[in-house]
Amino acid sequence: MHSLTAYGGEFVYHVEAIDVVQAVNTLREGKSDFIISFRDEDLMQSPFCCLKLFESELYPVCAADAQGHPVFDITQPQVPLLNYTATSYMGRLVNRHLAEVGGITGARYLSLR
């Protein structure tokens, strides 16, 4: 942000954590200049331009048994999965990735919004 100020005087910015669909709509409508988002194929094409800032990873995590071993085996075709709802932004990204890599399918017990 500091370097942007050097190019054009005062740089005014506002940070708001909102639904990604709403953020993309405000970008399309010209109500915002940029958003910071996880990689999303919808944002990797015209009319948008992107710049990769960093990479992040999601890790499957589960409880350990008395010997310190995972209670569930991620190599099994089904494991209990605490998952995001299919309509949420993270749910769409995670489910798309699992489908692409032929990953685990979850016996969903609880969903996060």
How would you sum up this structure, described in words?
There is one protein chain. The chain is an alpha+beta fold and 113 residues long. It has helices at 2-8, 20-28, 89-101; strands at 78-84, 105-112. It folds into 2 domains: 2-43, no CATH class; 59-113, no CATH class. Helix content is 26%, strand content 13%. It has a two-stranded parallel ribbon with strand order 1-2. The longest helix has 13 residues, at 89-101.
Q: What attributes characterize this protein structure?
A:
Cell density-dependent motility repressor, 3 helices, elongated, alpha+beta, single chain, 113 residues
Helix percent band: 25-40%
Provide the succession of SSEs.
HHEHE
What is the number of domains?
2
Number of helices: 3
Largest sheet: 2 strands, parallel
Note the topology.
Layout: H1 2-8, H2 20-28, E1 78-84, H3 89-101, E2 105-112
Parallel strand pairs: 1-2
Protein name: Cell density-dependent motility repressor
Short description:
By secondary structure, the protein is of the alpha+beta class. The chain is built from three helices and two strands, in the order ααβαβ.
